[in-house]
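In the laboratory, one determines a bound structure by crystallizing the protein with its ligand and collecting diffraction data. In a computational setting the workflow is compressed into a single prediction: the sequence and the ligand go in, and a structural description comes out. We illustrate the idea with uridine-5'-diphosphate.
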Amino acid sequence: MKVVTIVGARPQFVKAAAVSRAFAAVGVNEVIVHTGQHFDHNMSQVFFDEMEIPVPKYNLDVHGLGHGAMTGRMLEGIEAVLLTEKPDAVLVYGDTNSTLAGALAAKKLLIPVAHVEAGLRSFNMAMPEEVNRILTDRISNWLFCPTDNAIANLKREGFDGFGIEVVKSGDVMQDAAIFYSERSPMRSDIVKRLRIGGGFILSTIHRQENTDTKQNIEGIVSALNQLHQEQRVIVPLHPRTKQLISKLDVKPTFEIIDPVGYFDMVELLKHCSVVLTDSGGVQKEAFFFQKPCVTMRNETEWVELVENGFNVLSGADTRSIVELTRRMLVANINFDVDLYGGGNASERIARVFS
Ligand code: UDP
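The predicted complex, in structure-token form:
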């Protein structure tokens, strides 16, 4: 089968790294389209280089626009590609504007759509990601769900009656974590570079609800400042957050570094003592690398992490972040549970298209 894959944002490169390898192994003819949503070298190209993702045949170079203009231009660009390539299916990942644009462009041309990481819900319709994932799920033909909770969400929304193929594939990010973590000690020198000796707190911040609300971002910065006095806090900072943080009244005193490549990120995850994040992917990766996680949001799509005590929700309140982090640092957690399928989700997905 010929499959056009749409990617555009950092988490999609990580997911595509796993699935594209599985596609190649079973002989799927894959054409990759990069929408251009993330374009900085360390938010995009580094992942293609390090993770050996096939070079995109098309780059639509759409970025730096509001949600409407960005999604609209992507829709137009992807439609033109699909008319040229005439694939048997279009594959999209996750919940970004690139995801929705890819699914919609394909659906309007009557090309079947496959959604990887389907069925996730935060139940917060103010999140652009929630809108993107609900709409994408509804117009997809194959829904590859990472968890039982994702399947249950779809059932609740009546997907049983839609004639759509719902598959519990497991999580492709776990496939990536397993594959690349075997190689990262040879490919990353970040532990040496940052002189990491003892434990440290690893944090990432980029979710719109945190970056676009002054009270939230200041609450988070204050918490990280406070924690940094107790244990080193290292933050590979998303460009959007970096721009914003320089204008705040509260000045960060913790260690800010540029976003890192995946090998560096894996080594940071392996060596840290706790993860503080508002990222979807990083919450799961904390679990893959057996690290407790404090999620600086009021809800999460990855509810099984919270239900099993691997993750706690702090919101953006300074006191709550500090207290929960202290608690997670001394928690005795047994990570010996399989929540995400064990590492062969990509193969399961690829088999459908071979
Ligand atoms: N990541 C990375 N370098 C960084 C920060 C994140 O390689 O400096 C990786 C992270 O390990 C995960 C992915 O980027 O695989 C998550 O992307 P992000 O947090 O941007 O998006 P989300 O998962 O929230 O959609």
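The first strand starts at residue 2 and ends at 7. Keep in mind that any predicted model is a hypothesis to be tested, not a measurement.
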